[in-house]
Amino acid sequence: MTASALADALARTGGTIRAEPLTAWNCILNSDTPIISPAVPACVFTPACVADVLAACTAAARLGVKVSGRGSGHHYGGMSLVQGGLVLDLSRLNSVQVDLVTRTARVGPAASARALRAAAAPHGLHFTLPHLSDVGLGGFILGAYLGVVTELVLRLHPVPPRLRLITAVYPLEQLEQVGSFYRDWLATAAPCLDPSVALVGPPPAAANDVEGDGASGGGEGGGGSGGGSATSRAVVLLGCHSFAGEGDEATEAAYARVRALLPASRLSLEEGLVPYEEALSVLDPAWNWPGVCLYGHGAFMPVQALQGGPGGTLAALWAAAAAMTSPRSILLLAPAASAQPPGLLAAGGGGVAPSSLCFRDTLYVGLYGMWTRTAGGAEADGDAAHVAWVRSVRSALAAAPAPPAAVPAAASGSAAPPSTAAAPSPSSASGPASALVGHYVNEVMHDEPGQARLCYDGPTLARLLELKRRVDPRGLLREL
After folding, report:
1. pLDDT by residue (tens digit) across 97-149?
2. What is the side-by-side strand order in the sheet with 362-372?
3. Less Cβ around it within 10 Å: N or C end of the chain?
4. Domain 1-89 is of which CATH architecture?
5. What is the pTM of this model?
6. Where does residue 357 rank: exposed (0-12), middle (13-18), buried (19+ CB within 10 A)?
7. Cβ atoms 56, 13 nearer than 8 A
8. CATH number of the structural domain 96-158
9. Where are the domains of the chain?
10. Range with the poorest average pLDDT among 159-173, 378-392, 393-407
């Protein structure tokens, strides 16, 4: 009765009720797998305009149906799916309007980073964006759980037409030296820089040369699922984008330090000025290809917790990279936005971060098991082994101690506002302080309930729960 009444109400709008299930870009949400059993909504509705969104929410509230918004669908954990609920597929609300007078952009929740760049960059303007082009702005900026958003107004800032990039590649054996360099480099890196370290599997050609690693299967560009067996020849990438103009002295000084780091053991060094759009698209192929499967965990770490030696976080990352079950997988270290960025202000940045990776207080630690879905299915593709690898890395890092002088900073996800600050992990409250603190709200997985509350510090969580109690007393939006 409720389902038919909801369908009748939605049929009177200008939107569309989807007859077929939503298809996610992450294939583990579209097929049988021992990892995740995605929730099955009662109805998926695609509004044509804001009025349709309001009508759908009104009908759902009247009928007591839970509501969840879905922008571009980039959340790889599928958190827009609510069992027996109404999913608002906001994909048609993807407009981008740039106002050159006010230097602002009005964007729909499903507008992508690529679409905003295309509208703003010809005018020399920029918004703090992710380095992945297909990410929807609604989810990127606000995370999940907080309601249904139909429009955002974003302040734009000048950006040079070309960005200076540098990438140095090292063998895994140099991880401790590179990681220690990176930790110390962050302390003095100018706000215009967004340095990161990634541990990745071998390039496709090298992966296919490794006998017995199963890396020759499925997917364009090589690097198949690997069936869950360990890869080899993982490498360390030290990279940076500079959002300063050409000839910037701080950029040159920082990049000179990279050039001088372990030149004898370095595998390659690439540096140059790259057009803005190309510079912010360089990572796209590594995150989206036909048949991509992704299981991950995003947490935070005080910068000083990045330590070498037995039992340290760098040792845990080295072991994880050596045991990587797919050449597509990635271990990422990048600066995470803090709740309050005093370092940015002190460095003369004017409180404006040109990139989502320009903060300095806390590291974001992304653990991504990535592989390709083949005709063999989940068992043949090693789903269980890839997921076990991610969980083992998380456990190893959580077991590593925080540095004695470190006070875990409340940290939020990429360029997210203070409301998404990370909370201290439960382990730090009941035992020795852990190197990991909190969780990233945009990377909460269906199969691990309770993660959402780890994404906020205590006062922020209390404020959000009180707000939810007042505006959503019947619990029609997703639970925190």
Report:
1. 999 999 999 999 999 999 999 999 999 999 988 888 999 998 888 876 678 89
2. 268-275, 162-171, 235-242, 196-200, 330-336, 362-372, 292-302
3. N
4. 2-Layer Sandwich (3.30)
5. 0.86
6. buried
7. yes
8. 3.30.465.10
9. 1-89, 96-158, 162-206+233-346+357-399
10. 393-407
